[in-house]
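Changelog-adjacent note: as of this version, every example in the card shows the full chain rather than a window. The one below runs 123 residues end to end.
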Amino acid sequence: EVQLVQSGGGLVQAGGSLRLSCAASGVNFDVEDIGWFRQVPGREREGISCVSIRDNSTYSTDSVADRFTASADNVQNMAWLQMDSLKPGDTAVYYCAVGACWLGLSADRFGNWGQGTQVTVSS
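Full-length structure tokens:
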């Protein structure tokens, strides 16, 4: 079965860093990619980054590209999101999910979601 288990969230001061982890059991990284999303209460999920082992590539939206780095390891079946220079506007619940990076970061094109982890950035 496919199961994504997340960890690494927490409370951090503005300018600090966090690394989120996504343990992607049952996911074939030769076929599927890992996307990263975040959601603020009352707002739709926002796709922010994606990592493709198949294509040896990553994608990030402009709002985070200079600060966040997605990575993955096909042997460990793990994905990570390194977040640096965090801002209060980054406060959200962060999710990893299975999909295809080349299709774009629309949440409705991803499935097998992780449980989410809260990231709170204080000013």
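Structural remarks: Strands lie at 3-7, 10-13, 18-25, 33-39, 46-52, 57-60, 68-73, 78-83, 92-99, 117-122.
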